[in-house]
Amino acid sequence: MTFQGTFQGARPAPVHIGRAEPRLEARDKVTGQARYAVDHPLPGAVYAWPVQAAFARGRVSDVDTAQALALDGVLAVLWHGNAPRLEPGSDPNLLVLQSPDVRYYGQVVALAVATSLERARAGAEAVTVQADVEEADTVLRADHPGLYEPPVVNAGLPGRVDNGDFETGFAAADVRVDATYRTPTEHHMAMEPHATTAFWERGQLNVFDATQASSSVRETLAALFELPPQLVRVQNEHVGGGFGSKGAPWPNVVLAAMAARCVGRPVKLALHRSMLFSLAGYRTPTIQRVRLGADRRGRLVALGHESISQCSRLVEYTEQSAAVGRVHYGAVPNLTTSHRVVALDVPPPTWMRAPGECPGSFALESAMDELAAAGSWDPVQLRIDNDAAHDAEGLPFSSRHLVECLREGAERFGWAARDPRPAGRREGRWLLGTGVAASSFPAITWPSTATARATADDHFEVAVNAADIGTGARTVMRQIAADALGTAEACVEIRVGDSAIGYATVAGGSMGTSSWGWAVTKACRLLRERIDNEHGGRVPPEGVCVSADTTADIAARGEFARHAFGAQFCAVRVDPATGEVRLDRMLGVFAVGRVINPTTARSQIIGGMTMGAGMALMEHTVLDGRRGDFVTSDLASYHVCVNADVPRVDAVFVPEEDPHLNPMGSKGLGEIGIVGAAASVANAVYHATGQRVRSLPITPASLLPPVPG
């Protein structure tokens, strides 16, 4: 065949990138044909059900399995006395059933395996666990004696950054704000639970896993079971959401592999919704003190942000909540940002959509609103006046269009008609208010590999180990490939979700499209060049195949602060008699580089904004501090937004060209939609009522006077 496309000279202008396209797998999903982790039919498959610790700290002294094993269909009960030994690795939370020690409520202490799901659950309920229970420490507080300052926090950021002399600058400021903000424990609540199907075949471990990073799961399992990586294959063709909770391996995948080895049959393990609250991570609660100082013109002269959070005794994890100001207002001359964390007898927290930036922006952008009120400045103009050309470390931004987002949003939202007085507008019984907040998120690109193959039948096969967690990864990868190949999208077949393809980075940190897309672009361009230079523009009968690795390309990039930016606007109404808050509308305006697919991009942004609205008004995991148990353990008690909660939400993209990113010119956008959303709601509630709520979620009790007695 003759290869379709131009090979010599300049790269053809993109015709597929930037075009709204429907999801490739849409029909499979709505018809139920898409197979998730435990949907794969395997002969002889059995089921597993965990037994969880009913205490937060102590040691298991005995596990009685006799009654469970006597039940019809129960094949095995694993516990620390008979479970296969694992090779210790970097994550102690994955060393399941290796020790009698219990470090958090809900930790797995046994696993029942049976011929049906119902029998496995019955077997687990028949297991008797005896333990020596110790007093647990489970509650985060600002005066906890165990608080310490880690040198490095999540994302590899320095725990503390100090510029200038903050205390002197703050004391000398004309207008000051000093306030403490709190965010609660929150859970991801993805539709598909953490689930795994595992089986062993001729010494190879095969896994279908609900994961955002099959390459990472493969490496972890190979290390734990002392296998060469080539003897582990992890597939995740379809993943039903994750929001960060599936960005790293969790006990379910290790337990399934362990059980499959013990019983010699495929094992399916899907965690019950209630189990996810302790076995699949959460967003740590935070206590954040923000101090802002400005001169008479509204220019920041001092910014202080101190964040306190928790981690488990098994794994250190520090949410980088205080780092957001280093980007939003990094040019302030006197800046201090720091983190402290305490290890408690609680489950390990983890990444949740926009870790750090999300809770941090609530505190910082609420404080900016308080500063605007204290100085009688317009909140939009205050942010414009404090725009920065570089971050707190002095790196110039590769591109920064926050001001354009603020101005575009203000015009579309009708901000000029806003009455600046709090509690100044009514409509019937409702108090009306509007709020604004700034958004940012790093534009990260990590090394990945991809393979591109041309066949003699006018067909192209492109493989990249991307994880499509509901974001439309397949669709945008095909658009990117088609442009790089110079061919029609119908001629390109995309394969994702299989560690056998080759290494690819996690679907997290808003880095997926930028990272995988660069590898796909490189592989497709190399394929184009090889067909042209070595085969005269024609694909030989045996086809042509090339692979690409972007490690060296990414390392060769110049030093820039690469971030996406945005502005969030919100209108609310509040019933002063009941404290009820209703959202009227939300608008987000974002500069995220080149938008690959407006359909999937807008969906991601609106999803993030909706999640931010839930954070502001309803999401809150309640901890029983006496036992260390999360008592909100289902979707009936943990509330998330539904359609009626967010009646009008819109997202707009500001055109942006940035030559310092990747070949596509794209920035990640899966997380920036939630950054600043909660602050915009909280600021709107203040504008409506004149009451400043500094602890999330904002419930009717937050706005009503306390009941006497």
The level-1 CATH class of one domain: Alpha Beta
Got a strand count?
28
N-end to C-end Cα span: 85 Å
Major sheet details: 7 strands, mixed
Low-confidence stretches: 1-11
CATH homology-level superfamily of one domain: Aldehyde oxidase/xanthine dehydrogenase, molybdopterin binding domain
Mean pLDDT value: 96
Q: How would you summarize the topology of this molecule?
A:
Blueprint: H1 26-30, E1 46-52, E2 58-64, H2 66-69, E3 74-79, E4 101-102, E5 108-114, H3 117-126, E6 128-133, E7 152-153, E8 157-158, E9 161-163, H4 166-172, E10 175-183, E11 195-201, E12 204-209, H5 214-224, E13 232-235, H6 251-263, E14 267-270, H7 273-279, E15 286-294, E16 300-312, H8 325-328, E17 334-344, H9 357-375, H10 379-385, H11 402-413, E18 426-427, E19 430-442, E20 449-455, E21 459-463, H12 473-485, E22 492-495, H13 512-535, E23 544-549, H14 551-555, E24 563-574, E25 581-591, H15 598-617, E26 623-624, E27 629-630, E28 649-653, H16 677-689, H17 700-703
Parallel strand pairs: 1-14, 12-13, 16-17, 21-22, 25-28
Antiparallel strand pairs: 1-5, 2-4, 2-6, 3-5, 7-8, 9-17, 10-15, 11-12, 11-14, 15-16, 18-19, 19-24, 20-21, 20-23, 24-25, 26-27
Helix pairs in contact: 9-16, 12-13, 15-16
